[in-house]
Every structure is written in structure tokens, then in C-alpha cells.
Amino acid sequence: MNIVSVVPFKQRTVTSFNLGLPTARGRGWCKNPSCDYMYKNRHKPAVCPKCGLSLNQKDTKGIKSGTLLDPYKPLTAAQKDLQRQSTIHLLQRSLQFAESEADLQETLSLIQELNSLQIILVHQSDAEPEDNVETETLFESGWPHFFESNATHCSLCTYPLFKGGQITAAPQVDCWLLTETLMLRVSLQIKICLNVQCLALHSFTDIHSGLFNIGNKVLVTIDLFLKLRANIKLGLTPAQAVETVLFHVSGHPIHTLTPEEIGQIHELLQTGYWAFECLTVRDYNDMICGVCGVAPKIEISQRQNNLLSLKNVEFIWPESSQSDEVLVDDFWLTMESEALEQAVFPSDAPIIRVDASIIAPFIPPLMRSSSVINTEKNKVLTATEKSLSNLSVLVRLIHDGHLRLDKLEEHSEEELRTILHKCGADVTQEMKKDELMGSLLSLYTQVHTGLSTAPEPSPHFTAGKLSKVCPHKVVCGSKCLIKRETARDHVDLLLSSRYWPPVYVSDCAQQVALCADMQYPDLATQMWGRNQGCFCDPFENPEIVSCAELQDQPHSVDLDENHQIHPITRSVSRWLLHPPEETHSEDPPPVQHHSLLLCKDLEPYSDLLNEFRTIFSNTAHYYLYNRLLDFLTSRDIVNQQINQVLQACQPGEVVIRDALYRIGVAKIDTQKDEELLIASVILLGFLKE
Question: What sign results for the dihedral spanned by CA atoms 379, 380, 383, 384?
């Protein structure tokens, strides 16, 4: 433990962290908290060359009366809404954390030093020395007891900031300082931008101090967030991860709090953690498998029972939403902004209404199609469904032109009755033509909207998550479902991907193929013609399997970690042939022939299809959790792949990603191309991290 020199506590002064204001030596720093640009006052630029912030403060004397906020009056509801938006924008712009612990090492070292630092305070008595009065010695933490941003002007609009007392819009408040070993009561000064078009709150938010501000109620060291992330990656729920971090030290002061106070800290720590993750900079392309790249040859469907409770959530389905396309980046930015707002302005939210039409799947940017879709709003789930073989007959009749739904009235009653018998429908001689047509349309609707492919979820929860993963267990795309899973959810994910996989393994092969036949008939015709996804005509030779990729093991797929081949199904396999696409020379087609294998009866892989259950009550946290797990687990696998390639590299070789983002090794000629050598060494160093 570090101990500093003795300080008489009567003479003790309050300290705070320096956020980079001009110094006494003629230098100044950019006022953007996330920028460390320093300049000499004699050569102060008008605009920061590093972040673009204006360094010339506005002359507040010229501001017209009425354009500045009166901080002694309560904010209106409209002003509070504006303040929320501005404050969130301020954080997103100025506060960003590196994901790598190596990049945060300086900050983490500071946290450890302050946790172990002990200041000795000695009470100096007013009595004469010869009276031999004993002195009192106190031990205090190295952390300050007062925190305040040193900014004087808003980094969003350069207007002046105001701070005041309890009856103002920017008071001084008491909050907790929470570290791995300490819990202290400290004071925090809030500042507010006086621009009535901004009103952003400027609280203490300094990256270099290692503290994260949760709603001006808790200042928590970011090493605790890193421990939370590690525990979540190990499989703990966020609530379990918080409990593990808070209570792993038996002598931690948090044990002295009341159960109510502990519950509040527990909730705030979870809320702050998700805000921290939203402000963490990461490239989701880093999770793309190094063997498969952006064009996996095999993908396996996978279900997870991570659910969202509908107790405090109401999903709405706007009728005005016509397009199936969703804006992926906008949706995830909305979730991040919501999580940030909850952390900056924590409150008990009533029923939360969520626009379900904007919900997007999570697919790494380089693996996305130019158009990403989510057709869940169009789901029409029926109570009963006919057998797949009977519905296959319906699809064949439509493809062969024997049944035209737009001209049903041209069929006689007997023809309609015969068609329904072939499709396995229950018909009687008493049924009239209108009833017969209604039965056929009902069968068609079942296939067209997507047959159910999973059990009905509880009415109090969402339906979990559907993912597709490559054989190396790297996630290629995932979709959180609200309603019951159907075949169309599988088709949505496939259509939203940049490339269809040659082989797609699923336990609902026929449902997916029939849905694609009905939803995208032209595409399905190009892919498999009349075969409904089979290798050959399913009504003639359903047992025949012929596949160039699986010649050695026609009924097997490589799924095991040790690259062992395991049988999946005895007979039923489905193929989808992707239509040719225009490709560029720098972006070659992923495979010679594009096909999609759908396999049925995947009992050996039930662990892949149904995983553990985690229940959430917060919408934003639910979606962010699923995205984070996909990234962390996949990126760990990719890092292992990179390390294996690095260990095999010979002198003069570097690890690269090719046009399809697959890991490769490139040889360089140091004499011919010095610039290439420099770039390659930098890349190699990055991969080693």
C-alpha cells in the first residue's frame, strides 16, 4: 500500500481532476473532453486541428437578452426533452472508451494506485507542546472528495456554462464513489449550458480519471465494468455479474448499506454498464470468421432462449409501415441512445412503447446485404397447420399452373374439392364453392406468411433469438424475435446477408423452402426450379442426395470443434441455388456454385438450437446484450484463429485479410517495396494485440 506524507487535516484542501484548461505557462488544451490537443497561447488556432472544435469562445456580451437560460427558474417539459437530447449527443461526441484493456492500461494503473493510496491526516491540538496531548491520526483514501468539470463553455455550442446552488438548474449534489475496494460519499458539481437551444448538462465525465458517471448518483471506476464484461462473456446474466463484482470482497463497505441502498446501487451499476458499452468503440467486422470470411460455405441455424419480458414493454406495429427494409445502423443507434439516456437520467419508467417495425437484425457490416429486411410485422400465425407433404402438393400445383389463386372462380366446385383432397384438407360434399375457395386461400396463407418452426412462446415474453453461425461457431447474423418463430424469419436472415451460404443447416428445412417458394417465386425458380429446395424432384426421388461440396460425406456436416464429421440426417436434405450476381474484380464470387442445404432432424445438435435462458425487462439492454454476446464470443474465436496463423508465420510473412475478409498470409519483399513492409509490420502488431 502506498502512503503519502503526513498532512494536517485542518489545512487540507479539496482536490479535483484537471480536465485540461490553460496552464500558467502560456499553454492551453482543447476544451473537448475527449481531445488532448495542446497549443501555445501565442499561436492559438481558431479551430482545433485534431477534433474540429472551435477554440474561439463567443463573446457573451453580444448575446441578446432572452437567448440565455435563467438557471434560477425550473425547466419546462420541452426544455427537459431538449436537455436530454443535447446531453446524450454531448456524451456520444466527447466520451469514447477503447475496448482493449491494453489501451486503457494507463487509466487502470491510475485506478489501482488511487485505490491503494492512503493519506494520513494528523489532528494538531491547540494545547501547548509541554502538555503532551495525544494527537489523532486518520487514514483517508487517495480519491478526491469533490468532482467538477473544469470546462467553462459548452463543447457543443461554445456558450458559457453555469453552476450554482441547490435551487438552481445546476446544483452541487452528493453521490457515491464506487471502486473495487472503496465506497465513499463525495460531492459533484453539475454545470448547465445557458444556450436555450442546447441546455446540455456538463457533469464530471473524464476518461483519464477512470471514473464513469451514472446519473450523478454513482461515480464508478471502469475496471468494474471490464470485470462485468468478462463475467457476462463467461455466461453470467448481467444481474449475476453485478452481484459477483460487488460482493467478491468481503470487507467492501457496500456490505454496510441497507438492502434498499444495495438494490439501488445494483440497478445503477447495470444501467451504467450498458451506457459504458454504448460508448466503447469497436469494429464489428472484427468478429467475422477468419476461415469463412464474409461468405461461409456452411451456416447452421441456432436458437437462444434469451427473452424480453413484456410486463413493462408494449410493441406497436404502425400500419403506415409498408416497406420490409429496416435501417440497421439507425436501429442500433436508437438502442444505444436509449441506454445512455437511462444512465444519465435514471428514473422508473412506466410501460415503454416500442416501434416494432424498426427492429433490425444484427449482422456485421461487411456481411450485410445492401438491403436488410425484417418482415415480422407481416406474421399471421394460425392455430393449426397441415402436414408439410400436403402443403408441398399445394406449392407444386401452383408452380405447375394447375392452381391459379387469382382465378379461383374459374375452377369448378369438383376441381376445387379434388385439389383440397390432394392437399390433405378436410372437405365435405356439402361445402359450397365459396367455402372451398376459402379453404384453399387459408392453406396458401399458411405457407406464404411462413409456417411455424418453433413452439409458441409464453404470452408474457418474446420468442427468443434466431441466429445463423458458421461451422467455427462464429455468428454470421442474428434476429431477436417478438412473435413466434416462422420459416420467414430464416429467409429474412438469409436475404439480409451479403452472400447466401452454399450450405444452410436447419431443423425446419421444408418450411423454409416452401416459404421462399411462395414469397419470392422468381428467386426460388432460379435457385431450384420445381424441386422445392430438394436435390431433385421431391415427388419422384426424395432419397437421392448429390452434392459436390459433400461428396465424401453426403449426409454430414463438419460442426465439431475438433473438425470431426458427424451425421446429421438420414435422408431429407434440401438445396437452394442462389441466382448469379454481378461481381467486381476486387470482390470475386464467394463460391463456384451457390446452394443452400437445409437439413431436418438435428437431434445431435440440440445444444446449438436451444441454449440457456436469460430474462430481461429493459428493451434497450436486451438488444444490446444479444449484440454484445454475439460479438464477444465470435471475436474470441477469431482471435484464436489469428494467433494460430501468427505462430505459423515465417520471416517475411504477414497476416492479412483477403477480398472476402478471410485470414491469409502474405509474403513481402523488403527490398522492392519499403512502404509495404512498414504497413505490414503495423498490421502484424495490431493482430498480435
Answer: negative
